[in-house]
Amino acid sequence: MNLLYFDHAATTPVKQEVLNEMLPYFSNNFGNASSIYSIGRRSKKALDTARTRTAKAIGCNEKEVYFTSCGSESDNLAIKGIAFANSEKGKHIITSKIEHPAVLNTCRTLEKSGFEVTYLNVDENGFVDLQELKDSIRDDTILITIMFANNEIGTIQPIKEIAEIAKNANVIFHTDCVQAVGNVKINVEEMGIDLLSMSAHKFYGPKGVGALYVRSGIEFDKIQDGGHQEKDKRAGTENVAGIVGLGKAIELADYNLENYNSKLLKLRNYFIREITTKYENVKINGDLKQRLPGNINVSFPGIDGEELLLKLDGYGICASAGSACSSGSSEPSHVLTAIGLDREHIGGSLRITFGEHNTIDDVRYLVETINKIIG
Ligand code: PLP
């Protein structure tokens, strides 16, 4: 049985070109990037190349890129780093109710040490209300952290407008861009983003490596003590092979962005057309326009989403019943709850996220299999 993978928001396979560039750094070029002899310098050079490629893809300077171990670490470093560096100025942070746990739980930890956090509501499509954001800003607000695109429903926030509001209020703006990098063209300068988190495994790079962009001039504290790597902001011997992989993957993603997007949109539109024609009462969750091109989140009311997933797995189909990070939890999805879905729609939800290797035939098989299972 062939495996049909429709869960690219959870993770993606490493591209062959990416792997090819990484491999020498596990063996022949194994030097520590801090060593001054030739194989050390070779590793340092590989980090520099990856930094340049990353900076080019998001429109910043390479000095503004810090490599980390994942998207979660980037979020932690951004939020705690800004909070600790600015706690004299104020202790208020604004975020939204639909952030990934990497942001929500970081905020909750900060609340335990005296920070105050406002969790903005979202509307039925998952958008934050810009007026509520403006009204929430206080004299002691030091950070606004709002995700670029949601991992469950794919809704893309009005990032430029949010950045503008933050700038006018003299508040630092961080965005969790883990789902957007590789799917949406990002330019931190044009969009007014101060800090941005990304993770390589979401755009056909390896797992266990991420990056944080921090606009130059913005002070942030390190959250991990040790050596002086990453301009003394992130201690720990660099994962050279992983970082090489991130650099190559973001370069390829940026280069192929338009083709990739139009391919995903075709698959998505086909799926939506087929499924809404067959099932009158299905609900597509999240905004239909301002949305990640490969994301579908659909509710089949009255159907058990977990059971549907398991049955799809029996046919070799991988999808998700919500966020991969919250599966295994018995709590209903905080994102679907925040957009106002009732338990029946939450329980019957299915997330499908298309990727590079999916074809229309694959999607046809997916639709036919869903029909077979739920009738
Ligand atoms: N932020 C978002 C929006 C995500 O979707 C994820 C992972 O799914 C993360 C952060 C965490 O990234 P990582 O798995 O690299 O820690």
List keywords for this structure.
single chain; 375 residues; alpha/beta; seven-stranded mixed β-sheet; three-stranded antiparallel β-sheet; 13 helices; 41% helix; globular; binds pyridoxal-5'-phosphate
Summarize the helices and strands and which ones pair or pack.
Blueprint: E1 4-5, H1 16-22, H2 38-58, E2 65-68, H3 71-85, E3 92-96, H4 101-112, E4 116-120, H5 130-136, E5 141-145, H6 159-168, E6 172-176, H7 188-191, E7 195-199, E8 210-214, H8 229-232, H9 240-278, E9 283-284, E10 295-299, H10 305-314, E11 317-318, H11 334-338, H12 343-347, E12 349-353, H13 360-374
Parallel strand pairs: 1-11, 3-4, 3-5, 5-6, 6-7
Antiparallel strand pairs: 2-8, 7-8, 9-10, 10-12
Structure description:
This protein has helices at about 15-20, 40-60, 70-85, 100-110, 130-135, 160-170, 190, 230, 240-280, 305-315, 335-340, 345, 360-375, and strands at about 5, 65-70, 90-95, 115-120, 140-145, 170-175, 195-200, 210-215, 285, 295-300, 315-320, 350-355. The chain is of the alpha/beta class. Strands 2-8-7-6-5-3-4 form a 7-stranded mixed sheet, sandwiched between helices. A 3-stranded antiparallel sheet has the order 9-10-12. The chain has a two-stranded parallel ribbon with strand order 1-11. Strand 5, helix 6 (about 160-170) and strand 6 (about 170-175) form a beta-alpha-beta unit. The two termini are about 20 Å apart. The structure holds pyridoxal-5'-phosphate. Pyridoxal-5'-phosphate binds near residues 72, 100, 102, 147 and 176.
